[in-house]
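Following up on my earlier message about MD6. Here are the inputs again, as you asked, copied directly from the submission form:
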Amino acid sequence: MLLLKPGLRLYKAALDRAAQEALRDELRDLLREAPLFHPTMPRSGKPFSVRMSNCGPLGWISDISGYRYQAHHPETGRPWPPMPECLRGLWRAYAGCDLAPDACLINFYDEQARMGAHQDRDEADFSAPILSVSLGDSCRFRYGGENRRDPSDSLRLDSGDVLVFGGPARLMFHGVDRILPKTSTLLDPPGRINLTLRRAK
Ligand code: MD6
Ligand code: FE
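Thanks, got it. Here's what our run produced:
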């Protein structure tokens, strides 16, 4: 475990290749039930460059009217599929939180996609951490402080890595500067999947 700063823990290669392949295959089926959609920014309606879906009781979505957690897919109207057991096991092993996650956001990045600096603050209780799992191509992940203008650092996240944001790091600004194309053979089509497990309610 690497403690990057108080509350920010990185577990390199928490999933080995076989576990990554098993999770990839589960996600492939899950995304047939809950297809990736193109979220848009509140007010402006500008599309995100990532595509999203969710699993678990609640899912995070963004559209013209705002950010929120809801229990159904915005396009199919169906409930989100259950969270794979492998993800719940990572939460038990690494989150350090007795309560189970009730939401998992799935972000898919193609080679051009990025994620602007943001805080995750739509959850009811910031005492629970957020646990992130990376699959596929590596990325440059940027993290700073609680104010957008605080100094920032970046690190490389590779397939199989788990990052936990909790305690004093829970509300830090973070984003994805860029995807590093052709750094993994896990996904076809290529790209990066990031899963973030949360306690939304
Ligand atoms: C990403 N991650 O890695 C974006 N949020 O693609 C996040 O936005 C994130 O890694 C909250 C906690 C951990 C994260
Ligand atoms: Fe985030």
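One observation from looking it over: Helices lie at 17-33, 85-94. Hope that helps, and feel free to reply on this thread.
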